[in-house]
Design brief:
Shape: globular
Strand order of the largest sheet: 13-14-17-16-15-18
Radius of gyration: 24 Å
Order of helices and strands: EHEEEEEEHEHEEHEEEEEEEEEEEEEH
Helix content: under 10%
Distance between the termini: 55 Å
Strand content: 25-35%
Largest sheet: 6 strands, antiparallel, barrel
Number of strands: 23
């Protein structure tokens, strides 16, 4: 495209796609000349040379932020530009924000224990239900008893107690858009400017732990592994990006800045536009055989006691020995599974009584395999389904 130093409109967007994105800004990937030209990304202070922004009239516009002299032609790459719109809900009868999925507006399905259509409360015992569920989310006896305490996706009973000196500020509803009515289809998009404060030496903010899936009781947008994205430091909402920063979203919903940014105290404003992720995203590496846990934050608040706002994940293939033979040898069935716990202090309903730290869990069987690589899928399920279900219940 032609460039003369002035803002250049790139495309006119449908207003429904830009609703809630009036202050959208991300660092632009620009090359001098054609697609093989020199990249114009960050200067020596990590300030972007160019930005993409949404203007009045729903135009996507290229703006110079700190641009060097360039040729009359530049190439703009639009890969990774994500707009999450909060278009008004049609025929809504609740006060649920439009940033939430339809799951949060529908009557609660009180019959299912895990994901809809997978586990049912018709099981005679809690153990029976655990054994027959290939997917179990937050499987606890209190859930099995139907004690839900939910209004849509908002927790109303035994809410997580938020201490901003531990978690940092909680993201506002306008900062996150949630799509998908179950964890396998869910996508979460961050947007706008959010405030971060320093906790234990790191700049952090927190995804709301009291916004949860009413079916599995798991937080809507807590990822099942840590994820790293790029964000922009700004001095105010609508202001230019001063510096690029890397953030890490952790399994208990903490958003942590992992690169050096200033100032050293006070409040840091981060532009989160363009960040979108699936909470249930499989790791590119195969499951580990040793089931080692990975815990967050890496630097605990206290080495002498458990702190709220922590999480651990395991992604592995446990080894089970065959107890019917001697000497015992590993079973041929291989069960790939994942587990996350997130730990918090909860409201007991009594201001004089604190709950102590309690951990919720989400675990899922990801794949059922067999040591015989030539075995077909139907035979593997018939041979290994019960073994993997029992392993998952004990995982």
């Amino acid at each position: 495209m032609r460039w003369n130093g002035n803002p250049v409109p790139i495309a006119a967007l449908d207003a429904k796609c830009t609703q809630g994105n009036e202050h959208f800004r991300i660092a632009a990937h620009v090359r001098n000349g054609g697609v093989t030209g020199a990249p114009l990304w960050l200067d020596e202070k990590k300030q972007p040379h160019f930005e993409l922004a949404i203007t009045e009239g729903s135009f996507l516009e290229l703006r110079a932020n700190n641009a060097p002299e360039v040729d009359s032609t530049v190439t703009v790459f639009l890969d990774g530009v994500v707009l999450a719109s909060s278009s008004a809900c049609q025929n809504c009868t609740t006060t649920v924000p439009p940033e939430m999925p339809t799951l949060c507006r529908q009557p609660e399905d009180t019959g299912s224990l895990g994901e809809k259509g997978v586990c049912y409360s018709s099981a005679e015992t809690y153990q029976d239900a655990m054994a027959k569920c290939p997917v179990i989310g937050e499987a606890t006896e209190d859930r099995f008893a139907g004690q839900r305490g939910m209004d849509g996706c908002n927790v109303t009973k035994s809410r997580v107690l938020i201490d901003s000196t531990v978690t940092g500020p909680v993201l506002q509803p306008k900062n996150i858009v949630v799509m998908g009515n179950d964890i396998s289809t869910r996508t979460c998009a961050l947007r706008g400017v959010a405030n971060f404060t320093r906790v234990n030496g790191d700049w952090v903010a927190q995804i709301d732990p009291n916004t949860r899936d009413p079916k599995v009781k798991s937080p809507l947008c807590f990822p099942l592994n840590s994820m790293i994205f790029s964000a922009g430091v700004v001095d105010r909402e609508g202001g230019p990006i001063i510096k690029a920063a890397a953030i890490q979203i952790e399994p208990h919903g903490s958003i942590r800045v992992i690169t050096q940014v200033g100032p050293s105290n006070g409040v840091l404003h981060l532009q989160l536009d363009g960040i979108a992720y699936h909470p249930l995203m499989m790791a590119p590496k195969p499951p580990a055989p040793n089931c080692a846990p990975y815990c967050f934050p890496a630097k605990p608040l206290s080495n002498s006691k458990m702190s709220p706002g922590t999480s651990c994940v395991k992604y592995c293939t446990p080894e089970q020995l065959n107890a019917t033979v001697s000497p015992r040898v590993p079973l041929a069935c291989k069960c790939d599974m994942l587990k996350r716990i997130d730990c918090w202090e909860h409201d007991t309903g009594n201001s004089d009584t604190r709950s102590g730290i309690r951990c919720g869990q989400y675990k899922q069987l990801l794949a059922t395999r067999h040591a015989d690589m030539n075995a077909n899928e139907t035979w593997i399920q018939q041979t290994c389904a019960a073994i993997c279900a029992r392993q998952l219940s004990a995982f």
